[in-house]
Amino acid sequence: MLNLMNRIAVGLAALSISAGAAAQNDRAMDLDALLKQLEEGQFKQTEQNKAREREFMQKRAEQDRMLEETRERRDALLQASERLETQFEENDFKLADLQGALDERLGSLKELFGVLQQVAGDTKNKFYNSMISAQYTGRSEFLDGMAQEMGSSSKLASIEEIERVWYEMQREMTESGKVTKFNTDVVEAGGEKVNKEVVRVGPFALVSDGKYLEYNGVTETVSELVRQPADRYMDSAENLQQSSGELVEFGIDPTGGSILGLLVQAPTLQERVEQGGPVGYIILVVGAFGLLLALERLISLTIIKTKVNKQLKRKEIKTNNPLGRVLKVRDDHPNADTEALELHLTEAILGEVPKLSRNLTIIKIISVVAPLMGLLGTVTGMINTFQAITLFGTGDPKLMAGGISTALVTTVLGLVVAIPMTLLYAMLNTRSKNIVYILQEQASGVIAERAERG
């Protein structure tokens, strides 16, 4: 079948060649020439097929050889895998036997090294945030590396490493009771790093240039606190740095900086007032206005009381005080009867009362209005708080802090203004009434004297 197809293909090829030749030479070919061409084409095609068959047989032999080599390599790898697996199992058993022998030989030393590893880890955590590490650097790295090596492998600590752990712990205890000065790089509040003299008070505080410092164990840097504590603490820090051995009063933080951090974060008086918002400022303005009025009244009434007391001690009448002006009415009406004189004296006293009680009503109103304004600020702050809760929920307390601060601060400001205003009003009103009582008393005496003469 294959030969038949080859012959047909050769015949078709010969026909195509003949057609091409006929087209080129424009002449017809006879049957003998055509038969000859068919014989020549069949011969050539047969030789070509034989060459292809020989080439295919050669490649097939090469593929069989490569397949055989691959099978041999696979068998060798399988044998090696079985051998290595057997060796692994044997080594695993040997390792278990050696580990058991090591544990048996270590005995109590294994527990000792376990305790040493735990102590090294705990001490590393202690040194990590200790302010003494600002002066003696590199201690936590040694302990950390030692703890990791002992925990991740069968390596045991040497005598030198054990002695260094003891030495570092002893140095920590010794330095905890010392006040030491040393030089180190300090990151200032502005971000600039400057080498300064630092005073270390045990493991409790670091100060430099009269300012408190903090030690960061992550970056191993010393930096100034962005917010410093109150002035009285700053003065003690400056005195400590300038001292040369004498005792200095200084506050320490036994918690390692926690209390100092809270103390620094505490808002100042100005910040508390600012938390009150517009209502708080209005309360302060009203309170300042009332205080000025109270001071003016206090000074005026004190001066008037002094002049009235002087007038009581002398017989000569001076009109620079209310009592003198009231007594002058007696001299202005020497012939008036008792009733007429009483009316004139009453008129004079009533004329002096508004001068003595001037602005006292305003002070009283301020003492009443101030807590009401504080209540207004409280209601406003709570409204803001509930609005924040409505929008953001109660997950973040900081969102509610603003409204609550306004609510509480305005209440405090209102009470701070109302309480002294109430006391000042009571004191000034009493002084004013005392002067009026003196005027009434002296007027009653004048009337009685005129009545006896009549």
What is the compact description of this entry?
The chain has 454 residues and is an alpha+beta fold. The protein has helices at 2-25, 31-106, 108-128, 139-152, 159-175, 231-242, 258-265, 269-275, 277-313, 322-332, 338-356, 360-392, 398-453; strands spanning 179-187, 193-201, 205-208, 211-216, 221-224.
- Pick out the low-confidence regions: 1-5, 8-28
Give the total of beta strands: 5
Span of the ends, CA to CA: 177 Å
Question: Largest sheet, order of strands side by side?
Answer: 1-2-3-4-5
Main sheet, how many strands, which sense, barrel? 5 strands, mixed, barrel
Number of discrete helical segments: 13
Q: Nearest-angstrom radius of gyration?
A: 55 Å
Name the structural class. Answer: alpha+beta
Global shape? elongated
What number is the mean pLDDT?
79
State the helical fraction: over 70%
| Helix and strand run | HHHHHEEEEEHHHHHHHH
β-strand percent reads: 5-15%
Written overview of the protein:
The protein is an alpha+beta fold. It is built from 13 helices and five strands. It has helices spanning 2-25, 31-106, 108-128, 139-152, 159-175, 231-242, 258-265, 269-275, 277-313, 322-332, 338-356, 360-392, 398-453; strands at 179-187, 193-201, 205-208, 211-216, 221-224. Strands 1-2-3-4-5 form a five-stranded mixed beta barrel. Strand 2 and strand 3 (205-208) form a beta hairpin.
